[in-house]
Design goal:
- Chains A, B, C, D: It holds the Pfam family Aldolase_II.
- Chains A, B, C, D: Its cofactor is Zn(2+).
- Chains A, B, C, D: Its EC number is 4.2.1.109.
- Chains A, B, C, D: It is an enzyme of class 4 (lyase).
- The structure is a homotetramer.
- By secondary structure, the first copy, chain A, is α+β, with helices and mostly antiparallel strands.
- Chain A has a single domain, classed as L-fuculose-1-phosphate Aldolase (3-Layer(aba) Sandwich).
- The first copy, chain A, has six helices and eight strands.
- An eight-stranded mixed beta sheet of chain A has the order 3-2-1-4-8-7-6-5, with helices on both faces.
- In chain A, helix 4 links the parallel strand 6 and strand 7.
- In chain A, helix 2 runs parallel beside helix 4.
- At the A-B interface, helix 3, strand 5 and helix 5 of A face helix 5 and helix 6 of B.
Amino acid sequence: MSIQILRWNELADVKDELAGRDWFFGTSGNLSIKVTDDPLTFFVSASGKDKRKRTQEDFLLVNDAGEAVERTHLKPSAETLLHVEVYGKTNAGCSLHVHTVDNNVISELYADQKEIVFTGQEIIKALGVWEEDASVSIPIMRNHADIPKLAREFAKHVYGDSGAVLIQNHGITVWGKNAFEAKKQLEAWEFLFSYHLKLLSVKNSNIVSLQVQ
Amino acid sequence: MSIQILRWNELADVKDELAGRDWFFGTSGNLSIKVTDDPLTFFVSASGKDKRKRTQEDFLLVNDAGEAVERTHLKPSAETLLHVEVYGKTNAGCSLHVHTVDNNVISELYADQKEIVFTGQEIIKALGVWEEDASVSIPIMRNHADIPKLAREFAKHVYGDSGAVLIQNHGITVWGKNAFEAKKQLEAWEFLFSYHLKLLSVKNSNIVSLQVQ
Amino acid sequence: MSIQILRWNELADVKDELAGRDWFFGTSGNLSIKVTDDPLTFFVSASGKDKRKRTQEDFLLVNDAGEAVERTHLKPSAETLLHVEVYGKTNAGCSLHVHTVDNNVISELYADQKEIVFTGQEIIKALGVWEEDASVSIPIMRNHADIPKLAREFAKHVYGDSGAVLIQNHGITVWGKNAFEAKKQLEAWEFLFSYHLKLLSVKNSNIVSLQVQ
Amino acid sequence: MSIQILRWNELADVKDELAGRDWFFGTSGNLSIKVTDDPLTFFVSASGKDKRKRTQEDFLLVNDAGEAVERTHLKPSAETLLHVEVYGKTNAGCSLHVHTVDNNVISELYADQKEIVFTGQEIIKALGVWEEDASVSIPIMRNHADIPKLAREFAKHVYGDSGAVLIQNHGITVWGKNAFEAKKQLEAWEFLFSYHLKLLSVKNSNIVSLQVQ
């Protein structure tokens, strides 16, 4: 099987799984996977598709300027420039961007702190951090309607071959060596966000008096 | 394939997807899709069906009075008149009405304000609004057991070829060019409602002191 | 197809759907469907089965004493006597009992009031109540480990050919004309419970100041 | 069918079901099933696999030291030593370890109390406790990055042929006679955790004044 078909299927599989969780509501979100390094080419979501469906028009191949490398009527996702930054600045092979209710709420609650930090969570190991009581943090940046500006600001947070950025009320972007690694990170961050919000929602309660119900 | 079969399948597909999310609890909700413009005919949900099943009796063809255009033992949904208003006043091709816990709670919380407004959310773009820091609002109207009265009040909020209305403790109705556009809007609104409720549920917490857990 | 096969499949289908929502955690819950009236026979869940699987041993036929009418190694659900009460006192054709987190929490919060009342919810129509601003209420009774005693107390709330009872921290039981009607009621009550809990979870927030986010 | 194939399939089936609930986010969690008693061998999750997929490399056979008993490129899960303790100290046949948002939040909220106690819940019967108003408790222990140390501390809570332990911010481990019994317990505990958190999230509200909405 050609490398193009392999990569397409990897990306389509990860799309199916994330779509099954309703992480692409309202056609939001986009995904990409690197195909060749030199010159850089990668598959990226076509703009405006319903990601619950699996079709031959879900992705298109683009270059290091985010432009289609073959004749096509498809348009690359409006946010393709963010994927260009990932592949330009790191050795990552896959990048995933999704909106979830929880990642949007976290990005709003902690926007002023510009990051959120998690400590003492076993699932941090999925982010490649194995020390006891380790901390991980994810930057939270402002959103911009202008995509080139958004991409430039985003690029400031892109280093390391895996990583993640929250954009305020605009979801999370993660990148990793391949689709498996990118999805693993995505799930770990989402778990941490949901955990944190659930903890906040009960933290005001008089817990001790309720322990034995 | 005839236009009737195409439209039937489009509507059945969107019904399956929404039913899979349990957005039609207790046989609530209804859907329609336009088939012809002149004279107006559209498929609408038959009354009282379990929308988790896909059958030949899920929809029936009705006219601009909401009456069946062919002999059938099926009854159009009790709320067919609302769909009549959508197709009579706009160029929309599809209209979806669902009850979710979150859209009902939002409609109750903000009933007195008669609307809820969202600002600074990336997912607003799915509603066709692309400016930075744009606001979108959705009207919230009172519910009426009398359907003709409900339809008349509903009609006051129906303009534009895509749009959405919340009825207090009676779910959301959206309309758009076709099933894809209507579903995109529906998902964007539901995302905003869920986001807002999640934010409310944690907003009283002492967030800063909990940031590093 | 014989009436037995028809009823078995109806019950198996409703079991599959409720199991898909994880409404039978820990092998909790049970279901039944009437097969004959005179003498009364009905299929009821066999005890201790994983309801996520569909097998030939999911149900067994019992009589008006809740005893198997054919030789079998299967044991009827421990709570078969509650189903006996339903068929003995009403014309219902199906009865469903499930534990959900939300119905258990509601049953605990309102145990002292012995009921919970809902008003002004469109989904009340699924319970057969069509007047504007109608109220519906569901009784909440204490739980008893002794099943004959539990069944006797339960019977006090069983009248009408469709109905519902909450047992404190022991889930909901609904009954209706057939599997479709019983499931419709079950979904309507669950919707009301989830709605109410979501509303409570945000009701303390300073809603107005958050409206425009 | 050989006992190995039977056990493999039992474990793969339970993995599929738990993975479908997203209880293995970020490749977290692990599972095992006993194959032979003397000498002890059991299948355990291979390290670092995506548990949403079902493959020939999901598990490997290990001995009472947690070491592979056949030549393989697979590595046993990093936490295999905890499973070794279960099979060494009890007659259990299956052990399941999952991270959920709710079990992690409970483990954090009650870490200082070193346990959480539940009383008066019908679903407690799934844990094998049938008396009226019975209590069940689950120990909550600190997490340790050092796995042999973690396993030693864990072992202090392992007695009885079925049981469960929460590790702070590191999920739940349950064990039981077979996959069915282990999963039944897992679901019962998760139900209790979710119930408790939902109750906490609404407990501050002015419930009486909201009863009739």
